[in-house]
Every structure is written in C-alpha cells, then in structure tokens.
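Cross-posting from the modeling subforum.

Setting up a comparison between two proteins and wanted a second pair of eyes on the formatting. Protein 1 (sequence, then structure tokens):
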Amino acid sequence: MKLKIKLLPYENLKKYEFNSLFKDLKDDTIILVDAKLKSEEEAQLIKETMKKVSEKFSGIELSSLELSSENNINLFGKLKKSFVEMLIGKKRGLTLIGPAKIIRKIRKNPEHLMLYT
C-alpha cells in the first residue's frame, strides 16, 4: 500500500467540509495541517468521526504539536505570542490526522511527532 500525505493549510481546513476530509481519510490519506488545532476543533473532529465509524472505517488517529517553546519566554514574549495568535487565528504548530487502520501509533515529544504505520 502506498502512503499518501496531504498538506492542508489551516486556512483551508476552515473551508474544508467534514465530508471532504473524511473522503480523504477513507481513501487512506494522512492529512498534515500547518497549525495546532484548537481543543474545540479537535473535539468537533472526533465527534464527527464517531458518526462515521463503520466496518470499513475504523476511525482516526490525531495528534497536535505546538512549535513555540515557552520555556525561555518572558511575560512580554508570551503577550506578544498570544496577540499574534489572536490576529492570525491559529497557533504555530502541526496537526497530524490519519486513518486508524494505517496509523498504529503517534508518539509525541515536545519537539516532534513520530508516526508509526
């Protein structure tokens, strides 16, 4: 089986309908979004996925990674980061969404995501 990966800008995810997203996932495509999904967006995606689970579609694996390291950021830096996120409407990061039958496990470290098929 060939591995298919679709790179999807976060702005397009907002316009992308769930049916289109699930069509790609059912076609064994892994979707990589260029931002960290908000917890509400992840919850909505999981909720919609649960409606689509069947013998042919076993669900999804989902993991997000925030790219900004807050360890060395002072108060001004945190305020600046929050302001920029509010303006552009997305968090710096990556989100990996894939069919559960292909992705066995996603291991998340603070600095990277590891995908096991």
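Protein 2 (same layout):
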Amino acid sequence: MPFRWPVTPSIVRLLVFTSASALFLVSEAQADPSAPPAAASGFYVGGHVGYLFGTGTATFADPVPGATAGGTTAYGAFAGGVQAGYEHYFPSRWMLGLEADMSFPSAEDLAQVLSYRATGTASANQQLEYLASLRARVGYVIDRWTPFVSGGIAWASVRNERIDLTTGNDDATPSNVRVGYALGAGLDYRLDARWTARAEYLYTSLPLAGFSFAQPSRYDSLYDLHRLRVGLNYKFGAGETRGDDRPDRGFGSWEIHGQTTFIFQGYPPMNAAYSGANSLPPEGQSRQTWTVSAFLGMRLWQGGELYYNPELLQGFGVADTTGAGGYPNGEAQKSNFPYPRYNTSRLFLRQEIGLGGERETVESDYGQLSGERDGSRVTLQVGKYSVKDIFDGNAYAEDPRLDFLNWSIWASGAFDYPADRLGLTWGLTAELNRPSFAVRAGYFLVPFESNANTLDTALFVRGGYVGELELRYQPFGRTGSFRLGTWLNSTFAGSYGEAVRLAGLTPGLTANDTIAQTRQGRTKYGFYLNFDQELSDSVGLFGRFSWNDGRTEIMSFTDIDSSVSLGLSIKGTPWGRPDDRLGVAGAVNQISGPHAGYLAAGGLGPLVGDGALTYAAENVFEAYYAFQIAKGIVATADYQFLANPAYNAVRGPVNGFSGRLSARF
C-alpha cells in the first residue's frame, strides 16, 4: 500500500489562506533608501514564484496483456506558492532558521503531469498536486545580504490515473503522498526592516515508489526535481517601513497589495424536464471557489510602471462552471482545480504621458501606484491582463470579489471580450484621458478556438479589437459616467447555422459533433452601453445593454447575444454602517435565432447546452449585503434567482445562495 498523508484540499486551502493573509498585513510597502536595516530574529511569511523542472523515471506494467512501458522523461512548469518560518540571528552574524513551504504547479494545461507511460491497451500518469518541504536554514549576514543553505524532508501529493484505451474507462485515485528530501541554497536581501526579497534554488528527490491500480496494473516512479524561484517575505514585529511620504519616489519605489476571496455557493433541487452535458444538475449542488493573490507595482522611470500579479486559484463552480448564460459566480474559473494552481494573472508595463491640466492625487490601490498625475494624459499599457481591467468598467458593478457575483451583472453579458479560460490575455491598450471624457482602444490575443486555454498568436491576422468612449458628468452635483464600447473579434470559429445544417444531413450527429467542421476565419462583432450615476451620498444607479451578432461561436466569455441589466448600490450610512453595501440588480439575457437553433440541435457552448431547447429568455435577479467585519475584511450574503437557466423554459427556476469572505490588504 502506498503511504497516504492526511492532507486534504481543505487543509491545504486553510494553510495557504492563513499564510497568504498574514503576508499582506501591510497594504503598502516601499523600499527605504536609508542605512541597511539590522537583521532581526522573528517569524515571517511570504510567497514565491519560479520554475519547477526535472526528470521522472517511470515503469507502467499492465500484466493482463503482458505489456510494460518504461523510460525517463523531462518535466517543466511554472510554479508558485507560500512559505513560513522562523529565523534567529546571533551576534556573530550567523543565522539559524526553520522554514516550511508549499509550491503548486501552474494552471496551464498538462502542467501537473509529472510522468506518462502507455502500452497498447492502457495509459497511466502521475499528476502533481503540490510539492512541499520542511527545512533547516543556516546563513551568514553580510550588510543587507544573507546567503544561506537549507535541507530537510520533502513531500509531494500526486494523483494516479489509468485510462483503458480499449473501453475509455478512467481509473483515477485520490491523491497520495510521496516522501523524500530537499537541499538548497539561496540569498536574502533586506529591502527594509520588514520586507525581504529572496532568490533560491531547491533540489528535491522523491525515491522509487509504486502504486497499484484497481485493475491488475502497477506504476513505479522516481523523481529528481529542481526549483528556481524568487520571493518576498514579511517579518512580524519589525520596525516601520514607510520611509518618506513623497507621492512619487522615483526609480525603484514599489508597493504591494493583496487579496483573498472565498465563496461558497449552492442551490436546492430544481425542476428539469431533461439535462445535458452543460446543465445545472436538477438534484441541486454546492461548490466553493478560492483565490489569493498579490499585486506588486514598481516605478521604473518618469511615468513608467511595471506590475506583476501572481495568483493561486482553487475550487469548482457549480456544474463545473456551466448551466447558465448569466452564471452565478464570477470567481468560478472555467478550469477547475481540486488543489491550488499558480497563475501569472497580470504582468504588464504602463507608461503615462502627461498633457498638463490640474494635477490629480492617486491613492495606492490594487494595480495602481500612489502619486500624482496630470488630469489630461495619454496612457499606454502592454502585457498580460484582463480586457475588463480597462474596458466596461462601472462604479457599482464590476468586481465579483466585492460586489455582484452574476456574470451578466458585473459585466456586459454579450461582450465576448478576448480571454483564456481564466479571463486573461495579452494585449496593448492606448488611452486618452481628459477631465470630462476618455477614449480607449486596444488589440488583444484571442483563443485558438472556442473556450480554449491556448491563445492564437497570429498577430493582426486574428485577434480582438476593442474601443470605448467614456463621458463624465455631474448632473445636480452628482457624479456620473456613460460608456459606449464597440468590439470586433477575428477568430478561428464555427458557424451555428452551418453546424445545424451539417447535422441535419448526417443522421446520428448533433450540432456539437459538426461545429468543428465549420471552423474557419470569421469575425464576430458587437457593442455595449454602460452607465453609473450617483443619486445621493448613499445610493448609486447603474445599468448595461450589450449585443453581438450571434452568428458564430462564443470564444471567451459566456453564451449571451443580448443582455440588459439595471441595479442599485446602497451604502449602509442610513442605518449607521457606512462601510457596508447593499446591492440589488436584475438582468435579462437572450441568444440569437441561429444560436438557439444550434443549442436545440444538441450544440454546446462554453457554458450552456442542455442537449435540447425550449427557448425562453433567461431572467436573473441578484441581491447581496456586504458586511465589513474589520478594515479590509468583508463578509457577504448573496441570493440569486434564475428563471429559464440556459434559455430553457422546461428547466428551473434556480434559487442560488452564496456566502463570500473577502480580505484586502
């Protein structure tokens, strides 16, 4: 029997949640150019990112046909994680410490597959859930630097999977733990009294061990793994770190913010005449999602800023993030992860060019360095980020970590903005800001095909083009804004109408079977209208209308071809809770005739597809109350009602209940 470690996803989530929350206890940190801070003993927590690589030697024995496959293959993936420890500094400058760490492979497809072997009748693989160690550290202080060596026990959670190539049956097992050892060396650099930067190398050996499947087959493997990583540590109890308070501190000044959000969501049994591959299960279901992320910004030169947003993602949406066009959880990523996965969610360069006008004070925020800027300016941004970071913003409904959860309320539902399955892409944006208006335009990479995680790099042959005009005004002294956005995607996409026609010509096939045959270079276009208006010191009104042509596949967002939403956001000032929020909103989502015909013929979209369709508009109602527990920590209760989910009149309604705990630092 393989050694099994009592570590579940819930325990891992608790450990990482605790460490990550502690890491971001300070909402802003800036390097102090004064004398080197003294090395201080104490506890610390931190995060790291890097590259995990090595080799795996495996043998897969399938004795029924008498087949065996073996060999050594290379492994490589980006990884990120957390660490925590204690270090003691002696008067002689020697340091002695103890540290525990956990690293998680990236969210990219196949990043977790450590090794793979196949015979003529079956294949087997081992997948990495996490890699951890508990190590002693010994170092020596040299000015701001502390070189160190480390060593100790290591363990990895791996999942074993066997696929019968003759029947397609999948024999997947719960994770079990492999134990080995880790050795490494690194270099710490004290940025100030509390923050330390680190570069580190770790070698991990997982010796030979075997696993027996339920079928009479066995998988034996050993691994030699290497980690090259960089990170930041925050030390408790050290001195203040703010340095001077100038809004613009020049080259090298940096700030860090973080957030963590946990959402539990479920719904009771509902009516359903039938169900399909992308349906909400009629018996009801509950699931959870969790994210933790940091946002680091550094000022490079006058107007130039670099931003990096590492993130850990874990959890599942109900029905594996399918079942409704207006899906009820904005944090439910379309890739589902039982254990945390690392993702570089944002990595971009921003350049602001001042054009004069009254100077504005900018507060430090998630994705924004503090300082001052011209009221009139041009902003260029290039790198990896979300199209929604720049376009389709709204003062009251834009962030499912803080306000509304439903996709068709926090975004323009018919805006099929370019993105991978995690809602991110690479692109370039140019923006002109004046006090009374802004004009924005951008070009972005699109998925290789519908709902794919791989982006199409045929630059300017395929891609997404987005433009937006924003008007700002103050009727009766109340702030308001209006946005008109247009977009066009040039993609490798299928046609709904052609897929239905081909399915009709071939008995036994559905439109989902034939959609791939219709894929070619096509364009999809649409627009959105978006407004927010302050009605009083406590109440804000918002709304959106969006439309797309509805002829070709949805590539990135959700299965909506037209949508209208309207809602109110109310501060808790009237009842003595000014930092609380009450939100109420509704949305009506529809799809085009060709799109409805495709779903009725058995087609599947990124989120919907019941196998058949009795069409009706999808109606959404959402209400939430966000209660501030302490500064930066908010608990939210949310209710949603979905009539005709996935545009099907013979399914639903759905009553969804959610609890959200969010912390920002």
